[in-house]
């Protein structure tokens, strides 16, 4: 069996989702039964046939502190960032394995999606450096896998415009105007023509980004807080009341509604061992955490880890306008690794499930056809098979 850590992280505008998102909606062992909630009972669960726990012994970790049921005794403990929270994960892993030494021999992988995909290579780098310093494998680290990963370095944002053009969201004229006036920087317009065309493009992109079903995304949509930072005075972010019930016909959204009642049930909290007086109320997307994005780019971490010999799987749902696969391809190519197995389709049930390419230094990139921002959510079978084949060491 493999040990793997899935790091529950925030996505955009400091909206932090926790590992219950992974457990119930993405790659975890259970999911909610598709039935209306009438109150009085706990929402029912059923097994996920494509759970990644069938492939690995997985630790689902709430990070940064303040997400999910995690907490700090001192309010200052919530004031973390990419670097400090990643070091906390490394410290946690070492302590956990000290307490559970039977797992030390298991091949160990770090995994995460979206913004977690930005810090996973940093965590992996810290672990690899610790192993080298100790001169013996305190963790049997083999590599990492990241899905639709944020990379920073403006690549994620700047790739949205060409992606939207390729998907027919914006016209040739708008795309050409953006190219001419923005000079490749679509995130921070420096002139009025660029500002104007980006306003039009953003309006058109919102038609795709904002789903027909309310709350259908796993977290709030991107905000415009340029500081990427919130005040400690906003620490008390409890809802106080249950969320508004979405239409049952939008079951993807309805599952998030069910999660509120499941997680805040006294029997659930007791079964999970939640200490009284720590987390007053569980909410799916915590906002207001004083989190600092102090890792401008993770690209160097990817280079450092893979050139040390660790395996890497980078995968992207090809229908994700938030972290487009084209931007991910661009930073992978910037590593200048030679191609070992050129671009080709990978198959499932006799048809293409996506496309893949393998580079030197054990780096594999794969797309999942029709996959959204978190492919295990809307393409669970394809994501499961991809992970299964990669963890086994064979071709996709």
UniProtKB/TrEMBL annotation:
An annotated Gene Ontology molecular function: serine-type carboxypeptidase activity
InterPro entries the UniProt entry points to: AB_hydrolase_fold (IPR029058), Peptidase_S10 (IPR001563)
UniProt keywords, alphabetically: Glycoprotein, Signal
Gene Ontology annotations of biological process type: proteolysis; secondary metabolic process
Family under the similarity heading: Belongs to the peptidase S10 family.
Protein name: Serine carboxypeptidase-like 18
Organism of this sequence: Oryza barthii
Taxonomic lineage from the root: Eukaryota, Viridiplantae, Streptophyta, Embryophyta, Tracheophyta
């Amino acid at each position: 069996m493999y040990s793997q850590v899935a790091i529950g992280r925030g996505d955009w505008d400091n909206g932090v989702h926790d590992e219950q998102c992974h457990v119930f909606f993405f790659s975890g062992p259970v999911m909610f039964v598709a039935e209306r909630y009438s109150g009085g009972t706990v929402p029912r669960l059923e097994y996920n046939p494509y759970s990644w726990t069938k492939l690995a012994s997985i630790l689902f970790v709430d990070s940064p502190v303040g997400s999910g049921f995690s907490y700090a005794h001192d309010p200052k403990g919530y004031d973390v960032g990419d670097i400090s929270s990643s070091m906390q994960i490394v410290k946690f892993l070492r302590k956990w394995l000290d307490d559970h030494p039977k797992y030390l021999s298991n091949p160990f992988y770090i995994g995460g999606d979206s913004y977690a995909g930005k810090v996973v290579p940093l965590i992996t780098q810290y672990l690899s450096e610790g192993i080298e310093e100790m001169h013996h494998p305190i963790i049997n680290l083999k590599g990492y896998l990241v899905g639709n990963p944020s990379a920073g370095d403006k690549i994620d944002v700047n790739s949205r415009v060409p992606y939207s053009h390729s998907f027919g969201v914006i016209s040739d004229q708008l795309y050409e105007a953006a190219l001419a006036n923005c000079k490749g920087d679509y995130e921070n317009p420096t002139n009025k023509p660029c500002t104007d065309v980006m306003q039009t493009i953003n309006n058109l992109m919102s038609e795709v980004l904002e789903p027909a079903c309310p709350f259908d995304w796993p977290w709030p949509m991107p905000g415009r807080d340029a500081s990427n930072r919130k005040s400690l005075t906003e620490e008390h972010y409890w809802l106080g009341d249950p969320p508004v019930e979405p239409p049952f016909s939008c079951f993807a959204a309805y599952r998030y509604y069910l999660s509120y009642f499941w997680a805040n049930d006294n029997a659930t909290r007791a079964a999970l061992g939640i200490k009284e007086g720590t987390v007053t109320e569980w909410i799916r997307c915590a906002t207001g955490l004083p989190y600092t994005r102090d890792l401008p780019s993770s690209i160097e971490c990817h280079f450092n880890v893979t050139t040390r010999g660790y395996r890497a799987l980078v995968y992207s749902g090809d229908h994700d306008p938030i972290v487009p696969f084209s931007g991910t391809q661009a930073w992978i190519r910037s590593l200048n690794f030679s191609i070992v197995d050129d671009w080709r389709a990978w198959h499932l049930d006799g048809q293409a499930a996506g496309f893949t390419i393998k580079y030197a230094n054990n780096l594999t990139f794969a797309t999942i056809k029709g996959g959204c921002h978190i492919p295990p959510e809307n393409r669970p079978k394809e994501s499961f098979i991809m992970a299964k084949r990669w963890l086994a060491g064979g071709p996709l």
